[in-house]
């Protein structure tokens, strides 16, 4: 077996096994620092040994065993190991408060998510920590998701782990009464994990990481089994399914991103779309009964409109804009406003949309999608010079190889048409 095969196996193992190894070590040792560092050491050992020894028959088991040994070695080296053992026991084994009976949902990774999303932590810290521990995202990838500096994100994650240790937050799925306060953070984490898989930003990674999208969907299904009546859980699951249904049509054979208006809709997964639509209809029935929909339910409804159209020309853009108007009332974030403007361009024209987009410059100047959206609107308005500059900035900021290829092609097409002075 050559070195390239081994490196590919290690990369695949990291994508598939990182969260499982970290969760297993957290359950045993009750310390996130110990779990993360031992897991990292296990993967480093794999890099050293697998080229010589060969890829083990069960990479996940090999990594877990190796990481356990690394963790034990570290604890033995600590001068206060007795205190650490006691602390670990308190962190992961607290029988005083009964947790939700899991039955078939006895999942280490789900427990770890709820541990990281404890309400004692600030919401952004909950999300960032869980992306690191469960998603296996690098600090740089998480920083890009939050549009902050890598150093600031590293400090945020370190502080969150320290607070879990100091507060002796137990490693378990919380009791039924404690589920709701943690749910918003858990759903936010799963959505960001899914988004990183849907459009991966890490250098050297595949443009689409199906391991992350599949894991986010799996964990969301588990939470839906725990909380079947919660509308936002159902909405998030529907949203993920409707986006995942388009995965095979999103990347061309040459590795370029394919925009939704150019996708082969016959390649969309009909079963996932049907399941997503069923969940959306359930939530629409609840809304008709007076239950106001939340963010994920509205986003799922928007995606249901897109996936209901057999051709992009059949898209009900008025309904899409109306749904975004509803979403803005509960989440007026700049990214939501940006996405609404994209829909407005189809309904009212690119000039109206550009006016709305330009108002976001101060908050989204470092966000690649802002510049990509501006570039497309400027292109449609015939302002070629400005469009090219916006494409250049979007390419500079994007970390996804398929998206870079798409943006580069669109930019280069400008040279083939006569543009008005920008």
From TrEMBL:
Tell me which residues make up the DUF6596 domain. Answer: 182-282
Q: Which residues form a coiled coil?
A: none
User: Which family does the record assign?
Assistant: Belongs to the sigma-70 factor family. ECF subfamily.
Its GO biological process annotations read: DNA-templated transcription initiation
Establish whether keyword Cell cycle is in the entry: no
Q: Which InterPro entries has this protein been placed in?
A: DUF6596 (IPR046531), RNA_pol_sigma-70_dom (IPR014284), RNA_pol_sigma70_r2 (IPR007627), RNA_pol_sigma70_r4_t2 (IPR013249), RNA_pol_sigma_r2 (IPR013325), RNA_pol_sigma_r3/r4-like (IPR013324), TPR-like_helical_dom_sf (IPR011990), WH-like_DNA-bd_sf (IPR036388)
A single GO molecular-function term is:
sigma factor activity
Do you know which Pfam families this protein is assigned to? DUF6596, Sigma70_r2, Sigma70_r4_2
Q: What positions does the domain RNA polymerase sigma-70 region occupy?
A: 20-80
The residue ranges of the RNA polymerase sigma factor 70 region 4 type domain are 113-164
Q: Does the keyword Transcription apply?
A: yes
Keywords, A to Z, come to: Sigma factor, Transcription, Transcription regulation
Determine the domain of life of the protein's source. Bacteria
- Family annotation (SUPFAM superfamilies): Sigma2 domain of RNA polymerase sigma factors, Sigma3 and sigma4 domains of RNA polymerase sigma factors, TPR-like
> Mind telling me what this protein is named?
Sigma-70 family RNA polymerase sigma factor
